[in-house]
Specification:
This protein is an alpha/beta fold. Helices cover 25% and strands 21% of the residues. The protein binds zinc ion. Zinc ion binds next to helix 2.
Length: 250
């Protein structure tokens, strides 16, 4: 396993990057919350990052899901078998997605149709190895207990941002001044030719127009640090990042 990049970006906020996807580990005392969990093949990297932070899977109290694509929930089925007490929380719609009551994800055919594009062949090979074609479902996924901040490390506040998927959810960490944007806003992707705040290529969105509109929900949030699902973390406010994305629309 190539170790992922593990960066402490704020007190109790640890950002983990592989070449293909990111996740975040929130810690407070002995409590651990995982936000997203990479591809199925990223399980060793998830365990490695937990170990580096002196934690074990058994200590995970909650897993927060931004959205139920295979690159964000892939390691969960095997990880959760070692974390019997962990609750898996997301929006009501995305919980159903994670349980695979429906599926909103680019198909292998969608990806194959884009193989001529720069970046796609090597990225496709990489994600196939990471288990992109595995049928991943998380029966344990459930809706947040109620509105407002979650009673887990970092007190994340869910921000429903439908578009990339119908129940996509970002997480605002008011105390850390950070925003976990999932795939509602990313800062790079192996199939993108530009760096900086951007939307993923069209084929990855369930509803691209809604994904674009959802940026309005992020822009007003007070934060100075963006932790995206893909690409490096950026010291920018959501308003600044959204302005860049909108500027890039021409
Ligand atoms: Zn993703």
């Amino acid at each position: 396993m190539k170790p992922p990049l593990l960066t402490r970006v704020a007190d109790g906020v640890h950002f983990v990057r592989t070449g293909a996807v990111n996740w975040t580990i929130l810690t407070e005392g002995r409590d651990v919350t995982l936000v997203d969990a990479g591809y199925p093949g990223d399980l060793p990297a998830v365990l490695w990052a937990l170990e580096r932070l002196g934690r074990r899977p058994e200590q995970i109290g909650a897993v927060l899901v931004t959205h139920a694509h295979v690159d964000h929930i892939g390691s969960l089925p095997r990880l959760l078998s070692r974390a019997p007490d962990a609750r898996v929380l997301t929006s009501g719609t995305e919980a159903r997605h994670a349980r695979r009551e429906f599926l909103e994800q680019a198909t292998p055919l969608d990806v194959a149709a884009n193989l001529w594009r720069p970046g796609f062949p090597s990225w496709t090979l990489h994600i196939m190895r990471a288990g992109a074609l595995k049928d991943v479902r998380v029966p344990r996924a459930e809706a947040f207990p109620g509105p407002g901040p979650l009673d887990v490390p970092g007190r994340p506040v869910p921000v429903l941002t439908p578009g990339h998927t119908s129940g996509h959810t970002c997480y605002h960490l008011p105390e850390a001044g950070a925003l976990l944007t999932g795939d509602a806003l990313v800062t790079a992707h192996p199939t993108s030719r530009t760096d900086g705040p951007q939307l993923l290529p069209s084929l990855f969105h369930h509803d691209e127009a809604a994904a674009r509109a959802a940026l309005d929900l992020l822009a007003p949030l007070p934060a100075g640090l963006l932790l995206p699902g893909h690409g490096p973390h950026l010291a920018l406010s959501p308003a600044e990042a959204v302005a860049v994305v909108r500027g890039g629309d021409g």
